[in-house]
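Look over both lines before class:
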Amino acid sequence: MDKFSLLVGNDINNISPGISWSDLLTNIKAKYQLAGLENGQKPFPMLYEEIFLNAIKMQQLNERELKTYISDSVSQIKQNEIHQLIRSLPTKNIITTNYEFSLEGSASKLNTSLVRETTYSVFRRHETADKTFWHIHGDCDNPSSINLGYEHYCGQLQKMRDYVVNGTNYTSDTVFKASLIKRLKQKNDLRLQSWIDLFFTQDIHILGLSLDFVEIDLWWLLTYRARNKFYRKSDFIQNKLFYYTTKKWHQIAVDKMQLLKANDVEIVVIDESDKTKYYKKILKEINKRYQ
């Protein structure tokens, strides 16, 4: 159960009927009378800031109100067959950028985070009977934790870098104060306490995640890990990272594939256009690797 972990993105939710991110953006702009704002080529975190700042100027909007609206909207996403199949994999830890709890399914969940984070998500985890789910961009139960804007992304990255590089200053006695990288080098205090630990200690299989370049927190983590492995010759990094993509996107997103390879991520191309079959093939491939 501890040989590998998953990092799951929002695309698995697109199999379920319901509101898309494009629909949600349209609804938000209509709700706050900002229909004239163009999406264009704006990175989503900056578009979110534009929507929020314009809404403040016009209506004195409280950000928690906006995030609560988004939380209520994405909470309507229903679980599908792929969510169920993911839960059946022989893995203990499932990391996700999703805010809702479709991955957990109908099972009761318990927040067992070592730190009760209100905004950022270094320790945010929910446990069911046999799985631990790490909602690294926040969760719907805590709208203020939902990571959407540029300000939130930068704050999340700051917390992550402190945990990995500088060490923490949390008052909780249950959180190690020494940095993760120091503990890994000394092979001390390696008890799992953050989803970040998994990126240095277990194989990670990444699926359903576009990994847009605006995901500065994840790209920083990949880069920092790769620098330690190759530049600093850190022999304690022995795990592998895998990124699953379709044949079509592997050909289109050449720049992203090159960056992933440079950052020590193995690309796994699945030649399947049907979304449900595509994810079934991925999960079968992961299962086969650890038999």
